[in-house]
């Protein structure tokens, strides 16, 4: 059985042999093929850091068609992060070579202790919504019922 996932990517640290964060994200998009078929890639966008991170991020999103269930895909994403030099510091939102998050999946909502789909903060993050809406504008958030395009448009409105 095949599942479709929306995966968000981010980097704000250089990594040899890839180079700057944009190139790290581009390389990670290619490496995701080990976990399934990447059917769409968003443009890579720059965003300001969140929390204690110091450097600007390069962010993107992909659609990944995979035979893995959500827990198995998460394990594969964490393994790929480690291969790209990510080390868990115990603090959230620090500078990192690669961050991979499952945002949505074709099965709707999913919850386990280490994984919640939809990603709990994605509706508040322009750096996720913009790239996601670029490749899957009609995908509906199973919680709000809004499409990614609608969520991205709402995020751009002044409060």
TrEMBL record:
Q: What family does the Swiss-Prot or TrEMBL record give for this protein?
A: Belongs to the HPPK family.
Q: Which keywords accompany this UniProt record?
A: ATP-binding, Folate biosynthesis, Kinase, Nucleotide-binding, Transferase
Q: Which domain of life is it from?
A: Bacteria
Q: What is this protein called?
A: 2-amino-4-hydroxy-6-hydroxymethyldihydropteridine pyrophosphokinase
Give the function comment from the record.
Catalyzes the transfer of pyrophosphate from adenosine triphosphate (ATP) to 6-hydroxymethyl-7,8-dihydropterin, an enzymatic step in folate biosynthesis pathway.
Per the record, the pathway is: Cofactor biosynthesis; tetrahydrofolate biosynthesis; 2-amino-4-hydroxy-6-hydroxymethyl-7,8-dihydropteridine diphosphate from 7,8-dihydroneopterin triphosphate: step 4/4
Q: Which Gene3D superfamilies match?
A: 7,8-Dihydro-6-hydroxymethylpterin-pyrophosphokinase HPPK (3.30.70.560)
Task: Give the EC number(s) listed in the UniProt record.
Answer: 2.7.6.3
Read off the InterPro entries from this record.
Hppk (IPR000550), Hppk_sf (IPR035907)
Native source organism of the sequence:
Blastomonas marina
Domain named 7,8-dihydro-6-hydroxymethylpterin-pyrophosphokinase: which ranges?
7-137
Q: Specify one Pfam family.
A: HPPK
According to the UniProt entry, where is the signal peptide? none
Enzyme kind, highest EC tier: transferase
């Amino acid at each position: 059985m095949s599942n479709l996932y929306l995966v968000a990517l981010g980097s704000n640290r250089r990594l040899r042999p890839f180079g700057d964060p944009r190139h790290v994200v581009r390389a990670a998009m290619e490496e995701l093929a080990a976990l399934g078929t990447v059917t769409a890639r968003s443009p890579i966008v720059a965003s300001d850091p969140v929390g204690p991170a110091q450097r600007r991020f390069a962010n993107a999103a992909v659609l990944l068609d995979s035979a893995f269930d959500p827990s198995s895909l998460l394990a594969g994403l964490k393994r790929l992060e480690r291969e790209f030099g990510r080390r868990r510091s115990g603090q959230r939102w620090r500078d990192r070579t690669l961050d991979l998050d499952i945002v949505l999946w074709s099965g709707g909502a999913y919850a386990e202790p280490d994984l919640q789909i939809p990603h709990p903060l994605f509706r508040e993050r322009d750096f996720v919504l913009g790239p996601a809406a670029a490749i899957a504008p009609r995908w509906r958030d199973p919680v709000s019922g809004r499409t990614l395009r609608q969520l991205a448009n709402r995020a751009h409105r002044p409060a």
